[in-house]
Amino acid sequence: MAKRKYSSKINKIRSFALGLIFAGFVVMYGGIFFRNSPVVMTIFMLFGLLFIIASTIVYFWIGMLSTRTIQVSCPNCGRHTKMLGRVDICMYCDEPLTLDPGLEGQPFDEKYNRKGQNKNNADS
Fold first, then answer.
1. How many Å apart are CA 39 and CA 72, to the nearest integer?
2. Model pTM greater than 0.85?
3. pLDDT at 114 (0 to 100)
4. Terminus-to-terminus CA distance in the chain, angstroms?
5. How far apart are CA 92 and CA 119, in angstroms?
6. 3-state SS of 34-72?
């Protein structure tokens, strides 16, 4: 099995918002195929607009969340990166990061961030 590529949570959410923008454009372009039916074309255009509005909301939300995150200095590359949750990945060099002393030296796993998850039952 191929190892899954991890990325920082902030970058994942930003990528999702970017995907919403592209999906909105694709849906809007899909409306062009229904030029002869103004009602269907309008529905496609409105759905595309909803995707773009949703991406704006996600970008705003992650921007507000990003202002309240903890900034840490990456031990590998030395750059400052923002961290969400107990474990995260450096935005620049993909170094696993944690603020929990109990997780130091543990292999990186995103399940450590789930509610109710602690280091004792994370190994199962």
1. 52
2. no
3. 67
4. 19
5. 26
6. HCCCHHHHHHHHHHHHHHHHHHHHHHHHHHHHHHCCEEE
